[in-house]
């Protein structure tokens, strides 16, 4: 475990807040449709920033910490792509105006980082007190890997989110958006807009996906600081990737297969580590360098095999995961706000 001082923790959290504030001031000061060029620049910025932070970890805490961060970040970033598919359906379900989508993602991700921080704290305490927790994480990840392998389709229903249903029951909402306002006053009555609901939906829905991605990162590093920073960097860089989905991921038709293999590999790694520490198995735990190599190799092979398959069989594209999600988004368009009453 790293000896991370409160000063480093404080500087890191302040840095994340500054990034959010800068993003808000530079990008959302004027509501506009996010262009592919603009999204590309921001994705590159956050990737370079994550790699720079990995360099800091490598220099300040040692090569082990640097490798753990890189492995965790690649894994979390890859698994978080599933979140983007869910966000597509949520955006359509709430009929979010194009010019407001980036703001919804910005604040939704902010909520997600806070909630993930709480999950990471709970997971860290569980691991520190019960080494056998790795067995639980490993079994759960293996089960998730099987589920992901069998079905890459996601059709989230905003109305199945209990927190969203609670907000709808407790407060009055309009069906119409009023620019980026979260609430308005109408005839002397305070009404909330769908902006509040969709931000909450993005943030709280993300937590359900974190239930498999956070244990996966704990399978690569047991340090809560690294796990938290991995999640922060992955989510911060995830928002702009949303606007690059078309033409970027539509051809990676075997993405869910690759992600399931990564989850399965980490599940085995967790079980081996748990058996080594609690049952004194003779099998040595998988080194972080080997883990990083395996994860990178799986992703590379997934992309190559997908590209070759699409080139040889173009008819596969209409059945790709992204195509299925986009079709689902059209089918569920506007459903989440149909029942809202003023």
List the helices and strands and how they pair.
Elements: H1 6-27, H2 36-61, H3 63-79, H4 81-93, H5 101-129, H6 133-150, H7 162-170, E1 183-186, E2 189-192, H8 194-218, H9 224-241, H10 255-278, H11 288-312, H12 321-331
Antiparallel strand pairs: 1-2
Defining traits:
342 residues, 12 helices, mainly alpha, globular
Gross morphology = globular
Mean pLDDT: 84
In the residues, how many domains can be counted? 1
Distance between the amino and carboxyl termini: 53 Å
Short characterization:
A two-stranded antiparallel sheet has the order 1-2.
Give a structural overview.
By secondary structure, this protein is mainly α. The chain has one domain. It contains twelve helices and two strands, in the order H-H-H-H-H-H-H-E-E-H-H-H-H-H. Strands 1-2 form a two-stranded antiparallel ribbon. Helix 3 packs across helix 9. The longest helix is centred in the middle third of the chain and has 29 residues. The protein starts with 5 loop residues before the first helix and ends in an 11-residue tail after the last helix. The mean pLDDT is 84.
